[in-house]
Amino acid sequence: MAGMSPSERRLQKELMSLIKDPPPGVSVDAGIAEQNLLHWIINMEGAAGTLYEGERFQLQFKFSNKYPFDSPEVTFVGPNIPTHPHVYSNGHICLSILTDDWSPALSVQSVCLSIVSMLSSCKEKQRPPDNAFYVKTCNKNPKKTKWWYHDDSV
Amino acid sequence: MASSSSTEHTVKDNAGDGAQNPETKEEDKKDDSMFECNICLDTARDAVVSMCGHLFCWPCLHQWLETRPNRQVCPVCKAAISKEKVVPLYGRGSSKQEDPREKVPPRPAGQRTEQEPGNSFSGFGFGDNTFHMSFGIGAFPFGFFTSTFNIGDQRPHAAPQGTQQHMEEQFLSKIFLWLAIVFLTWLLMA
Ligand SMILES: [Zn+2]
Ligand SMILES: [Zn+2]
Predict the structure, then answer these.
(1) At a CB cut-off of 8 Å and minimum separation 6, what does A28 contact?
(2) Can you give the residue ranges of every domain in chain B?
(3) pTM (global) more than 0.80
(4) Which fold does the domain B2-103 belong to in CATH?
(5) Which residue range or ranges hold the UBC core domain (chain A) (predicted)?
(6) How far apart are CA A92 and CA A94, in angstroms?
């Protein structure tokens, strides 16, 4: 691990642990991450017994060299974007730990688990009410969005 | 905008636990990770503990506090946290083989009084350190400038135009000017 920046060292540790001991329904594409530690693709399965059971999703993580002080940019990518009140059809996710409530003690694994849990607690599959407008007007980077978080349990 | 509040979905973990030495026994792994910094996931160096009991490297925690100066909370449990209220940990044989360039502002409680002068040039200088450092060196480039502009017109021994010496002086003064500019830019960026 010599010669690595602090962010690379941490990402390397996270990658090793995610490869070795992935949480249920989550797996990292090790090939892509090893090519460029700042860009990961995570495969995610909808949890059994939820509205997303049997579905497969892909999450993209982009890290800056200020990680973990700076939050990763996390979006759904690929052919299947989950239909969920907090997930826009362009893959952007409205989840406060990805911006305002980010903490350097969080990790790729804990972000994935939060997203699994967010999907699992969904009662009705639907897009956010402002989806059409948001997708047309938003910045490509969801971290540039000034999200307005509120406490609902969906 | 629709959203999901963090608290209920947030799951804390400690990625990287014992990832480096697969041979160690399970119990050993747990013991090791007890002393891992909650930010860099390495064994904490210059360790400090918050009032809520969470362990960090002082450089890591310091950088986090600088990142969010207006909202200083423990990265793990979100309890209020401040520089003054963390406790440094001193193990047996601490304060040895550290690379001095990696030292960030001295840990609170000021036990380590020795000050290596080279410290302030490290790329890791934050906050107060950086400020004082730039200020101290800041006098230099202006000195450069005045001497640079004086060459050629006020100096009694200025060489006549067109001679070899004159060209050399012009060349030198240009170099000095560039040095001064580069130096100033560096100061501004630092
Ligand atoms: Zn650390
Ligand atoms: Zn805490």
Answers:
(1) A15, A18, A19, A22, A40, A41, A42, A43, A108
(2) 2-103, 137-147+161-190
(3) no
(4) Herpes Virus-1 (3.30.40)
(5) 6-154
(6) 7
Q: Which residue has the tokens 């059971």?
A: A53
Structure tokens at B132: 């004082």
Q: Nearest 10 degrees: CA dihedral of A125, A127, A129, A134?
A: 170
**Structural domain boundaries in chain A:** 6-137
Q: Which of A67, A71, A84, A95 is nearest to A120 (CA)?
A: A84
User: Distance between CA A148 and CA A143 in Å, rounded?
Assistant: 12
pLDDT in tens, A118-143: 999 999 999 999 999 999 999 999 98
Contact flag B4-A103 (C-beta cutoff 8 Å): no
Pair of tokens at residue B153: 């017109």
- Which of chain A's residues have a Cβ under 8 Å away from the Cβ of B10? 97, 101, 106, 110, 114
ipTM of the complex: 0.89
Is CATH 3.40.50.300 the classification given to domain A6-137?
no
Which residues of A are known to be catalytic? 94
The closest alpha carbon to B135, from B146, B125, B148, belongs to: B125
